[in-house]
Amino acid sequence: MNRHIAPSILAADFTRLGEAVATINNSKASWLHCDIMDGVFVPNVSFGMPVLEAVHNISTKPLDVHLMIVEPERYIDRFCALGADVLTLHQEASRHLHRAVHQIKENGVKAGISLNPATPVSTLADIVQDLDLVLIMSVNPGFGGQKFIERSYQRIAELKELIEKTHSKALIEVDGGVNLENAASLFAAGADVLVAGTSVFHTSDPAYTIEQLLKA
Ligand code: DX5
Ligand code: ZN
């Protein structure tokens, strides 16, 4: 089983964004997670295209772009062109998921779908085979630093079952409230990729914390 950590740049000190990206470049992180929020799909606004482009210019890690925006179809081609390696949109935000997923793939980018905590895993039954990744939100999206929702473990197990049953190659990513206390249980439950913001960037040595999360 492969374990991956995708630090969320949302928790970095934005006055020293370049240093934060360099720290991740020199770490064992697999991807750099970038949260795009529009203030409509979620009650918060994060950063947008110019910042993402700047991060892309200096990141040596693949960019894992998590779109928390309404009507994400409108921006798929632009986010792909800006350098997303994985582009994830929300099941709850898109009326035509199948079309959106294939639009992402036509750009040569890995396609992911994210589920809010109250959205049944079973809603992915007819699309999971086409996906490269499923992102289970383990907090309500919109903010870093929130408390992990325990029910997420069952959702990961359910998703793993669905992936195995359908012979899907999708990776399971978990996002929100991930830390050194729950990382081992999340990997054991079936997670392939853990997103970690606060628990990585709000420590004195983020690269060391990433190693600890991997070894958890
Ligand atoms: C929440 C974002 C997360 C967030 C994770 O809406 O999607 O990626 O940055 O932050 P922590 O790890 O602090 O919960
Ligand atoms: Zn995220």
Give me the secondary-structure topology:
Blueprint: E1 4-7, H1 17-25, E2 32-37, H2 49-58, E3 63-68, H3 76-81, E4 84-90, H4 97-106, E5 110-115, E6 133-137, H5 152-165, E7 171-175, H6 183-189, E8 193-196, H7 198-201, H8 206-215
Parallel strand pairs: 1-8, 2-3, 3-4, 4-5, 5-6, 6-7, 7-8
D-xylitol-5-phosphate (DX5) binds near residues 10, 139, 144, 146 and 176.
Overall 3D shape: globular
Give the proportion of residues in helices.
Answer: 25-40%
| Alpha-beta classification | alpha/beta
Number of strands: 8
Description:
By secondary structure, this protein is α/β, with parallel strands linked by helices. It has one domain: Aldolase class I (TIM Barrel, Alpha-Beta Barrel), CATH 3.20.20. The protein is built from eight helices and eight strands; from the N terminus they run βαβαβαβαββαβαβαα. The chain has helices at residues 17-25, 49-58, 76-81, 97-106, 152-165, 183-189, 198-201, 206-215; strands spanning 4-7, 32-37, 63-68, 84-90, 110-115, 133-137, 171-175, 193-196. The radius of gyration is 16 Å and the shape is globular. 46% of the residues are buried. The mean pLDDT is 98. Bound molecules: D-xylitol-5-phosphate and zinc ion (ZN). D-xylitol-5-phosphate is lined by residues 8, 10-11, 33, 35, 66, 139, 141-146, 175-178, 195-199.
